[in-house]
Amino acid sequence: MSISVSGCKVSEQLSEKIRVSTFLKTAEFGSYVHLLRDVDLKEVMANSESQKSPGLELCEVTETTNLN
After folding, report:
1. Which has the least CB within 10 A, 28, 37, 57, 59?
2. Which domain holds residue 31?
3. 7: nearest Cα among 49, 51, 57
4. Is residue 33 part of a domain?
5. How far are the Cα atoms of 42, 60, 64 from residue 33, in angstroms, in the given order?
6. In this predicted structure, what is the pLDDT of residue 53?
7. What is the C-alpha separation between 37 and 21, in angstroms, rounded?
8. Which backbone phi and psi does 67 adopt, to 5 degrees?
């Protein structure tokens, strides 16, 4: 099993932390189990080439993109 996260940023300014949580719904428990809880992507990507924006590119904004 592996977990991956993808995303982009909508402006040059980043939040202090970029948190992500993932869940897996199990038949045994009949509910969701945390796989990752509030992992800070900025900390995970700290060794990225670009220190200004650690691994996140600007989102491509198109006419149909809703940023709200």
Report:
1. 28
2. 17-47
3. 57
4. yes
5. 24, 33, 34
6. 47
7. 4
8. -95, 5
Q: Which residues pair with 23 in a beta bridge?
A: 34
Query: Quick check: 13 and 22 in contact, CB under 8 A?
Result: no
Q: How many residues appear in the chain?
A: 68
Query: Could you list the mean pLDDT of each consecutive 10-residue stretch along the chain, which spans 68 residues?
Result: 82 85 90 91 69 68 60
In a domain, 62, yes or no: no
**Residue 8 in tokens:** 């982009």
Give CA–CA dist 62/8, Å, rounded: 14
The domain tally of the chain equals 1
- DSSP symbols for 8-53: -BSSS---S--EEEEEEE-TTTSSEEEEEEEEEHHHHTTTSS-SSS
Whole-model pTM: value is 0.56
Only one residue has tokens 């990225």, namely 48
CB–CB of 5/19 below 8 Å?
no
